[in-house]
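One record is set out below.
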Amino acid sequence: MHIPLDYYRILGLPIQATADQLRQAHRDRTVQLPRREYSDTAIASRRHLLDEAFAVLSDPEQRNTYDTGFLAKTYEITSDSATPTLLPPTSESLSDSHTTSINIPDRHLVGALLLLQELGEYELVLKLGRPFLTGGSASLKDGDYGDPSIVFADIVLTVALACLELGREQWQHGQYENAAEALDTGQQLLLREGLFVSVRGEIQADLYKLRPYRVLELLALPEDQTEERLAGIQLLREMLHERGGIDGSGNDQSGLNIDDFLRFIQQLRSYLTAAEQQVLFEEEARRPSAVAVYLAVYALMARGFADRQPALIRRAKQLLLRLSSRQDVHLEQAVCTLLLGQTEEASRALELSQEYEPIAFIREHSQGSPDLLPGLCRYAEHWLQDEVFPHFRDLARKRVALKDYFADPQVQAYLEELPNESDAQEWSHGQASREVASVRELRPAVASDRRPEPVSIPRESAARPLRPALSVAGGDAPPEPRSTDALIETARARIAARMGGTATLTSDRAPSNVATMPAAERVAPATADSPTEPASRLPDDRASRRDRSRTGPGLGSGPRRDGGAKRRSEDVPPPVRPAQRRSQPVWRRWLLPAAILFGVMTAGFGLAQVLRMVQASSQQAIQTDTMLVPLDRPLVTLEAAGPQAATAALTNTTAKQAIESWFSAKSAAMGPEHAASKLEDALTEPKLSEWRKASQDAKRDNWYKQYKHAVKVNSVEPTKDKPDQATVLAEVSETTDYYEAGSLVTSTTDQNLRVQYNLARKDSQWRIQNWQVLQ
């Protein structure tokens, strides 16, 4: 049978190879052995083809005859003149991409496939090997190819390995779905035949590591390719299931730890629409997952505002209550309640927030107003535009305008029918959460004047806070829209009407509920002798904020469970004076104080024990319920992981990458910049010290070199009993331009150098330890 190979390719040599190069190549190729899964028959067949190629090319007469036929097949020979001319082949003269072939006995089929596999001709291996797999070993029963069961197993192994290497090659070129198809083909073949469990494990490991790349590639497709994008979402769901959620500790075999996976989730958000994110993250939030809850809040608020569906914003508000015990989400709650027209709740949420820079921005844009609503409107617009919408594929370029939102008839109808949600149930839930947070602040680790760092998922707005001097497109802060005041007054009027009041909530109306008054008015009420302070002022002292958050109902600085209304002084009955009593003996006078003192000491001891128990339980809750890492850091670039990290063994591909890394480091170290530090990424001792010194000498003597390289890896041979070492045989072409004082002196070219590289693995990366140019 004819196999598209030639003797030069079998030995990995060019046609100009010398006799010494032939002997060295034959020796190297015979020493290098294929994978241990191959049968002795396959190894012997491969060796026979190597010996045959060497025998023909080492004999001058046979080589001359072979070269004539080789050139005739490779080129069109014209003899119109006295001297024959070699012309490149035309499309009519080629039957396929391989123009030369050799005729081999059928029994050496497996050896030929093995050589093609080593040369990287994976598509050709699949083309030649697949016809023998359709009928199983019965297709080889005539015995022309050898023992049917042995030959069939070797063909299955060669085809499966071709699928594996082809998948890794396509993975390297960013064709992730094609890579998955090739890997899955090899996996299914091995599963069907029940052979080579170890190879099947390698393919499965690559398929697991490939899933994040496939998810990103599929989700990045246009929205009209619904089927493919749904396949990407399904892959993501499978990964989430195996991990136990976004912040779960399960192993999905992708190689991503919790930190990297959270960044991966953040990275893919920009490829998902708001509706897709809502469905996905609401489903994940039921695990439960604090990260998924927060991402679901983003999706609900974005979609609710963009699609004019306040019901979704109301659901986001309910989800925020689940986070309030672990995270300061009062700003998000303020925006939610503002979009629902609940201005009093929005003001209360702002008073409880400890996000100082956003609060400063809100206060700055509320100057001259009795409350913080103008600044909150401005902050809500910027937050939705800059922090929320960019993370949704269908909303990234959409403009945010509160005026258009509140002017929508569907929004107005929903807000008119929305019941008053300032009830005791929601408020008591938030108050209980703040009490838990106050107990957690008793821990010594955070018992200082500094505001404790959040232990749960931080908002992206905390990573890029809106500052008082916010600029847009390089200018100053945008002017306040003219419709803001009218919008606020309309919202106040709507709230008053829904509460059954007849008077409008204008700016000169004195609040009747102390809990709903701005912070500055609660601290210093206006009197006839003291002018009213700006309503937008909030206490700047952090200690006062912390102390206020720890107080419970009825302490004057926080809202009461019954609405927070204080009784007027004229409604309080006069105090009852105690009746006059007769003088008592001395021991009776001290008996009651002593009993009180004893009771106080006993209660204090019991309270201390309770606080210790609460502290321990809160620490345990922090460790189990909160997110382990934030999302405000740059996303991991997944392409950096690549197929090189997918396998520990050195392959032709990874060997070529290591050699090319050395060429890049060499160009940097010996180039105009003399960047010797690059050598550490490609070399190890003894070559590292040698080339460091060469770079320093070149810099001192004011000369440098510029290189152009090309490399082809012919073989990779692991060192026996040393898994971290290997020998690589490669063909290298190098062009060198030599400069002195910035002027070109000479230029040399070395082509088809046969170099033997000794590689060592250090810190999970293959580096070159030594090399030798072969004759």
